[in-house]
Amino acid sequence: MAILGSIIKTAIDLRGAIVSKKSPVASQQEVLRNLLEKAKDTAFGKYYGFSKILESEDISKTFAANVPYFDYNEMESNWWCKTQEGLKDISWPGSPKYFARSSGTTGKSSKKIPVTDEMIEAIRTTGIKQVGALTNFELPSDFYEKEIMMLGSSTDLEEQDQFLEGEISGISASNIPFWFRGYYKPGDEIAQMEDWDQKVETIAKNARNWDIGALSGIPSWMELMMKQVIEYHDAKNIHEIWPNLQVYTSGGVAFQPYEKSFNQLLAHPITVIDTYLASEGFLAFQNRPDTTSMKLVTDNGIYFEFVPFEPEYINEDGSLAQDAPALSLAEVETDVDYVLIISTVSGAWRYLIGDTIAFTNVEKAEIKITGRTKFFLNVVGSQLSVNKMEVALREMEEQFDIKIPEFTLAAVKIDGEFYHHWYLGTETKINTEEIADALDKALKEANKNYAVARSKALEGVKVTTINPKLFHEWNAKNKKMGGQVKMEKVMNEEKFAEWEEFVKTQKA
């Protein structure tokens, strides 16, 4: 047994033993009160009467009744733009040092989300909690001596006026605690590289010099990196290069769609731990081995609300209707899709982050991400969420013995009739009519609204299969490679026409 690893593991165990056992519901009430207290003298706090809300007998209900929902555009145009102009005390006391750029999966321009010192500390604290939770996964002591490969965007942040800008993964990596830097790879010099291809090529060249025990990053980009490392060293799998690799912490998107193709790059199974780090904060992480769900971080600078994910509450652009009801953590139920709303120490208030979640265990505040509000396909009443789409595609993988790590689709008109046109990323040749019929059948069985739509306005399903690399090339064309980048799963007709032209050009 490695002595140093044993010491680190014991220290983590002892720290975990003294962590507060306050219930998630009680923690959330305390977080909301602290947020309102700290921000009551800001321009936002004065405008919405935070001081009065704090006097209420039911702070959470009064808060919900007096502060509207905000999506990014509303928060930016009404409040954060003033912060970017250099004004202080707008939606949070003082002025943030950082802005997190998030191109996301919709929209043409990058979002710029403030990241305060309090948020940096909250992310760091949650990161330490996640490390502490590793002791629940029965990893050997020598694991704690190994290095961790964190694949994210560049840590070489851009100066914009008095702020530093970059993706949240780059901002977080640039604030890694000093005691962790000895374990962190690929190291500061490589992490600062802007060019994705250059970064991955340099990682591949240096790979054998590192003793990697854990990987961390978005699944699609992690796969590309591992493939290049394997190819560069003419290896059969990644364990020939990093024999002590035991853990992968996935983030940003669900790991399940990538599981089959990811595992083919390994010599043996490794522990996969899901995390939920967004540009707006570190929201949740998996803290025990007997579930794939993630525990919401209920005691660390983020207050959560949950809106039932129903068509009547979602506007055409993916924003929320202001009369949509919001539930607190004390009111939610398991296995119901909710739109996630957050208020944070970065001055986001009742903010629509764009994700939908479902609780798997309310008492433990454990969730799974089920989709995106803008990836809700309801053009002809089909009411398809990303979760339903991905469940159906996992069935297709099993039924046809193929891998489908990437997909996108749109509702399009063909000869005057509506069809769902799917593009599936797979390297296997397959009869597209057969898989279209099977996919259609699976969705009918999984979703009664889809079945009704198929009997009326939705004429059918069309499937086109393409090489998964085209999805990455599309992101590269749109200057979205690496970091927190995710492929859009549902496109409108205009974007889908661009996509089809791109695919046609690449095939030619």
Automatic annotation (TrEMBL):
Pfam families named in the record: GH3 (PF03321), GH3_C (PF23572), GH3_M (PF23571)
One GO cellular component, as annotated: cytoplasm
Transmembrane segments: none
Keywords: Coiled coil
Single Gene Ontology MF annotation: acid-amino acid ligase activity
Domain GH3 C-terminal: 391-494
Superkingdom, taxonomy of origin: Bacteria
Segments forming domain GH3 middle: 297-363
UniProt KW Coiled coil keyword: yes
Coiled-coil residues: 429-456
UniProt name for this protein: GH3 auxin-responsive promoter family protein
Taxonomy of the source species: Bacteria, Pseudomonadati, Bacteroidota, Flavobacteriia, Flavobacteriales
